[in-house]
Amino acid sequence: MYDEITSVTNYPEFGQTSQIQQFLRLAQRGTEEKEREGALVSLRRGLQRPETQQTFIRLEGSIRTLVGLLTSNQALLQLEAARCLHELSHSEQSAVVEACLPATSYLLTYLSGHSSDFIELCLYTLGNLIVESEAVRRQLLPQGIVPALAACIQSPHLTVLEALGYALSQLLQAKEAPEKIIPSVLGSTLPQHMLQLLQPGPKLNLGVAVEFAWCLHYIICSQVNNALLITQGALSTLGLLLLDLAGAVQRTEDAGLELLACPVLRCLSNLLTEAAAEAVGGQLQLRDERVVAALFILLQFLLQKQPSLLPEGLWLLNNLTANSPSFCTSLLSLDLIEPLLHLLSVSNVVSVLVLTVLCNVAEKGPAYCQRLWPGPLLSSLLDTLAFSDTEVVGQSLELLQLLFLYQPGAAQAFLQQSGLQALQRHEEVAQLQDRVHALQQTALHG
């Protein structure tokens, strides 16, 4: 009976084969449903071990028996059989994953079922199988996985939506996705529904939003048709979500907001590089000052919670300020130059991005350079020129060139503050020293 069934994990390895066969026989032909269900529960626990998984798939008829139970008309047996397949789907061994191929069409069919728990389980199992095996993906595409997922996204159950986001994200990361998968996804209703699920408001769910923000990120990175996403309102939706995130990090200490911030920042950064973004006034949709203020709130949040994500926010700031005087004006009018300079000490990568943003501001001309110089920027540049990282030093020099060009007296003020001595501490002293002298001459006689 059920209480007497012992898990396969309690048996030594030499006994596993016969024990698995016993569980399969009981699950298939047991006299009571509780006994059959108990056999599958024990089998599932055993399948959590890689060696048991290998033994299981080598047994003739094991997968066929499991699929038979999955397609039975008894809900509890179906559920336990699906859980066994789920354990197999976690395997990193391609042989184990591909042994599950006979079950994929049934898992796909059950996505249109009525049990939200069962649909959720099928989605996570499919997601696991998708990520591990190209053979699984090749089988699922003609079987209609994209339309099946598009139907699931209208589910009212948050657990189903989160599982759907997981499965879809695994599909979108496949190496063949740009050619064989993403065009089908873009041609479905999935993108519009994803954007709806990312709309800020009381119905926004963090877990669901994180999954679909990553889905959107993978689609955008493929560059298959970002213009379509922009016309569907991706920029405005993500911009509003950025503002909402900034408000949320000020209101709550709840962990996990950085998990959503990362894909949102990446999506916005990449979309802003698209020509279509300019064509629809993408930057204007982001409402200048509010976006800059929100971005700095998030930068401070990430500095405390997840400093490794700071480059994501700074890359967005770089793309916002690169071709937009209005965003540069916002940076100055909100007195955000000094907080930006405080980030120079975080890492070399962060320093380069901070200096790049400052170059974007300085490139806009004399009026902008006048607001930048000297202030705290002079002492900060003296520090960055002493860095051992050549990229940081090089970007510092780019900024100096712009300041010397547009701001009278900047070169002399810089040299008076021992700027040249800072340069002399760098291993490429001759090259850098010549360049500073050239910049000084440009400023004095140009």
TrEMBL record:
InterPro entries: ARM-like (IPR011989), ARM-type_fold (IPR016024), Armadillo (IPR000225)
Gene3D superfamilies noted in UniProt: Leucine-rich Repeat Variant
Domain of life (superkingdom): Eukaryota
SUPFAM superfamilies: ARM repeat
Membrane-spanning residues: none
Protein keywords: Membrane, Transmembrane
PANTHER family named in the record: TRANSMEMBRANE AND COILED-COIL DOMAIN-CONTAINING PROTEIN 6 (PTHR16356:SF1), TRANSMEMBRANE AND COILED-COIL DOMAIN-CONTAINING PROTEIN 6 TMCO6 (PTHR16356)
Protein name (Swiss-Prot/TrEMBL): Transmembrane and coiled-coil domain-containing protein 6 isoform X6
Organism phylogeny: Eukaryota, Metazoa, Chordata, Craniata, Vertebrata
